[in-house]
Amino acid sequence: MKENYMVCNCMQVSYGDIEDALHTHETFPSVLEAFKGVQLATKCSTGCGGCHQKVLDIISELMMAPSADNA
After folding, report:
1. Predicted model pTM
2. Which of 3, 20, 46, 53 is the one with CA 20 to 30 A from 64?
């Protein structure tokens, strides 16, 4: 159910949308670079900006998670 969690209400971006946008790129050198890429793909955090920290936290969580390839 986590993937259905609405992170950005202004742009209707869910956790799953952020995860999908993050995985469309092979690598990002940093969380901030990943944020820029996710923001371009989803438009999250371009409205009121209230979700900015939530988006950064989700990106950090996803980048730190062990990949299925390494399991």
Report:
1. 0.83
2. 46
